[in-house]
Amino acid sequence: MHPLLIGIKPFFEKTRDSENGILRPFKRLLVDVLSSKERLDVAIDAADKLFRTLTSRGHRVTIAPTSGQMRRADVDLRETPEKNRNQHSAWAPERPTVVFIGDVPIGLTLFEMTEIVEMLYVGNSQYVPVRNLTPEQRRRYSAPRYWTTAKDLASGRLCLQVYCPSWRVSWVKRWPEDKPGQFSSMVPDIVRELESAGPDLSAKLEAARILAEEEDRRWKDEQKRRREADERARQEKFRQDARRDLLAAIAGWDEARRIDAYFTAAALAAEHLDADERHRLLSRIALARELVGKNGPLEMLLHWRAPGERS
Predict the structure, then answer these.
(1) Domains of the chain: total
(2) Which pLDDT belongs to residue 296?
(3) Residue 287 lies in domain
(4) Which of 33, 119, 139, 232 lies deepest, with the highest CB count within 10 Å?
(5) Residues 45-74: what's their mean pLDDT?
(6) Residue 102 lies in a domain
(7) With contact defined as beta carbons under 8 Å apart, do 241 and 285 qualify?
(8) What is the pLDDT of residue 252?
(9) CA gap 49, 163 in Å, rounded
(10) pLDDT score of 86
(11) What is the 3 state secondary structure string of 201-265?
(12) Does 206 reside within a domain?
């Protein structure tokens, strides 16, 4: 048996509840195989046949490394996928299972498909497939107490989904069984198609890599231009702020000169007053100067910040 499949069955059997019958094991670092309990042995044997055939052709089958560069494609378990109809969330492994065709990784998901089955409600929250009922049971479980509905259930037929695990390339292909047990006979054709797909995928991945590098370069150039534009706008704002503050300082100096001229004229006028009046006026001039404060041109210029001094 292929190394990825040795001893895995007990881990798949430790499972959560499932409405469609497809196992949902608690352990997630497992090979990418999904099946019902009834078809688990069949699914493992089918995966073994596929993996060993690929290995015999020189292709390495493994669980993807932890680098995070590979993603697993979504899997629609229904034999006829429908975009406008919801499906129950399926179990997914922690990391994809991949085969390397040369240097090209291809993701592998082997799963048991689900099919729409007409179900009859028989009480106690239980449903049974209508196709399994005897004529007597059909008469017993009649409306209105019992009713039918459609559910997705495991079909017993396997399907292989392969895909490109790179997010840069969208490529998915499926090989479904028409009837149970058919998968082993499909393996040789599947392997040949995977080998044929390798070079084409390699070219697509290389083209996607070049496109991604070009997009990354354009993004970096755009970010650089944006940073340069932001810096120019910032420097222009600093220049405008510095000019505004300088003009305000000059205007303040003009105001200070007018105030000083007023107090000087008042002091000169005090010289013509008698001693008591002169003393009283000079005292009030001193109080007024203290209230206005000193706001000389040198002090204002020392506190002014040039554009290059702003941040």
Answers:
(1) 2
(2) 63
(3) 230-309
(4) 33
(5) 93
(6) yes
(7) no
(8) 75
(9) 19
(10) 61
(11) HHHHHHHHHHHHHHHHHHHHHHHHHHHHHHHHHHHHHHHHHHHHHHHHHHHHHHHHHHHHHHHHH
(12) no
Instruction: Please tell me the total number of residues recorded for the chain in this structure.
Output: 311
- Exposed, middle or buried: residue 162 (CB in 10 Å: 0-12, 13-18, 19+)? buried
**What digits encode the pLDDT tens for the residues 245-273?**
888 878 777 777 887 888 888 888 888 88
Classify burial at 282, counting beta carbons within 10 Å of its beta carbon; exposed 0-12, middle 13-18, buried 19 or more.
Answer: middle
Q: Which amino acid is at 78?
A: R
For residue 269, give both structure tokens. Answer: 């006028």
Structural domain contains residue 153: yes
- Within this chain, do residues 167 and 27 fall inside the same structural domain, yes or no? yes
Residues 119 and 241 in one domain: no
Is 158 in the same domain as 269?
no
Question: What pairs with residue 121 in β-bridges?
Answer: 127
Asked if 43 contacts 158 with a C-beta cutoff of 8 angstroms, the reply is yes
How far, in Å, CA of 261 to CA of 264, rounded? 5
40 and 176 part of one domain: yes
Distance CA 48, CA 189 (A): 16
Q: How confident is the model at residue 85 (pLDDT cuts 50, 70, 90)?
A: low
pLDDT of residue 294: 66
Phi-psi region of 257 (alpha: psi -120 to 50; beta: other; left: phi over 0): alpha
Higher per-residue confidence, 45 vs 117: 45
Which of the pair, 205 or 149, is modelled with greater confidence? 205
Separation between Cα atoms, residue 23 and residue 11, nearest integer Å: 10
pLDDT, tens digit (0-9, with 9 covering 90-100), for 26-56: 999 999 999 999 999 999 999 999 999 999 9
Which structure tokens are listed for 218?
């354009």
For 288-292, what is the mean pLDDT? 78
Query: Does residue 191 sit within a domain?
Result: no
Confidence of residue 277 (pLDDT cuts 50, 70, 90): confident
Quick one: 30 and 117 in the same domain?
Answer: yes
- Coil, helix or strand at residue 91: coil
Q: What are phi and psi of 248, to 5 degrees?
A: -65, -35
Average pLDDT (161-189) is 94
